[in-house]
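User: what does the whole thing look like in 3D?
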Amino acid sequence: LSVKRFAFQPWHSAVEFRRYLRKYLHEVHQLGSSPSPNTLDRTRYSQYESIILPVISFLKREGVDFRFNDKVVDIMTYPDSDPTTVSEIKMMSGDDGQEEFLVTVDPVDLVIVTLGSVSSGSVLGSNTRAPEMVLPLQEEDSDWSLWQKLADKSTKFGNPSNFSTRGSASTLETFTITLHDDDTEFINRLVELTHDKPGTEPFMTLNDSNWILTLSVPHQPIFANQPEKVQVIWGYALRPERQGNVVRKPMVSCTGEEIMTELLNHLGFPVQSIQSNSITIPCVMPCATAPFLARERRDRPEVIPRDTTNLGLVGQFVEIPDETTGGMEYSIRGAQTAVFSLMGLDREPTRVRKSHTVEFLDLLT
Ligand SMILES: Cc1cc2nc3c(=O)[nH]c(=O)nc-3n(C[C@H](O)[C@H](O)[C@H](O)COP(=O)(O)OP(=O)(O)OC[C@H]3O[C@@H](n4cnc5c(N)ncnc54)[C@H](O)[C@@H]3O)c2cc1C
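Assistant: Here's the predicted 3D structure for the full assembly of 365 residues, as structure tokens:
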């Protein structure tokens, strides 16, 4: 039970794995000790409430115009031979998303674009319904088609298809379990089994499960408005395409109830009593680990592509030297790089943290 599996798979990028080792080598030993509060930074409430909402409030006060139902369908650039400057943004909006309009971009305006998305193509199920997956991902999915249109203009904008078309190598299934009615049986039994209080261990992997189930039990409450008698935990599976050990079908075809049955059997907890007070919501994410996929050097574009004048590219699929993709920090560092550079500020993002051991070895080589 002390095993912890992150989201890396044997077929993922060795280059990326090396970056992780260089950054986190000094923290690896903490994974085996308990409690290991420093292994992952945790926020008071969920990241949405503790980070995203305050950032949105700040940006709204600064006059940022948020538009949730508009889609950017193309970014027009010139000259055709080697695009350097963005001149127009083509958008779709309206209730049915069919109204097209153009935003004119002056050469002094700055355009920052998030390429791709780890949540692209995600499908939710329910306690009684399996997620209805459409694989492979629809090519017209706008999370990728915008990047594809840019890439069609020049190879300096990277190669999205390396990350968007390999669902079998990048799919994760996550699930959220809500325990109702003051039912502390699940958490009590888990604490008894692991000797870890909620919120002290980042992950617990059930390594013998065919689906490779991992549980994350945060401190409670994890949501500000969470009723006292409710507890919420989260988990994911690295191999949801496999048959379960108890539930003999692929996890991607399972309802929340079936996933909970499999989990409770692995833990050796009573199924009936806990199941009747819980709701499990599954979510299949075909691009969840796409940032870790093996890549060629030019598959990820630079944050400021060569010779461009008013364009920054950010997100999980751009190249930031030394930094490890797969987390919010990567997107933030990309955004800082874009803003500092495009606005001509004399600032740089903080240096990427490196293990002291690695820095010492670097000195010797
Ligand atoms: C299961 C899972 C767990 C994770 N846990 C953590 C964690 O604990 N800590 C952590 O730091 N990170 C975590 N991550 C990673 C984290 O989710 C990403 O780092 C983060 O979401 C990246 O943010 P982003 O804004 O760059 O991109 P995204 O969150 O992908 O946002 C991009 C947005 O742009 C939209 N978009 C794309 N194209 C268009 C278009 N043409 N027009 C309009 N909108 C468009 C997309 O729909 C999307 O909403 C996790 C990821 C997964 C899959």
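In plain terms: The first strand starts at residue 71 and ends at 78. The radius of gyration is 22 Å.
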